Input
Amino acid sequence: MRIALTFDDGPNTEITPQVLDLLEEHGIVASFFLIAQNITPESAEVVRRALRMGCEINNHSVTHGFMNQMTVEEICREISVCSEKIAEITGTPPRFFRPPFIAVNQLLFDTVDLTFICGSGCEDWVPEVTARQRADRVLANAKDGEIVLLHDMPGNVNTIEALREIIPELKRRGFRFLTCGQLFDNCGITPVHSRLYSNVFQTADRVTVHGVGEP
Output
């Protein structure tokens, strides 16, 4: 069985390194969806560490705004600037995009030439959701081809604690941890444009969803 851990809202020098420490400890990889305005010379070094570990770096926009309310020009800027900043660090543009708030519309699908990723979340952007609850929700949803939506935003220590249980338990169940790109490739799935993926085997087509991702 195969699964992809993904993390939104980085990079930063507080929580992102702690996520990387856990990944490194367990010898696994993940995918990080970056907000371009969070990329600084210091946080860029964290991204380079993730890249050296075999992790994947993807697009989560520049400003984390509601892109389903933007014009074509605004959408293009959000995507192109973020992708360019990522390419400056990694040497290659990203393959995947997670819309902020998981808020999409047909204009967004028509404008953005990247594969759209959603993922099964555990409300880990909500401080009141405990580490125990986060771990339980992720483990309950774990299935072959699943994309797990988590956050490495500053202060999100409950997710770090949850990962201390999530990773070993998924390993015990026989899951292999892959990046998004590896997940599609390993499962033999070619991403379809205008679809929003939470599992590579089960897709939602042309949906508008609010509140699945972070606020």
About this structure: Residues 96 and 115 are 5 Å apart (CA to CA).
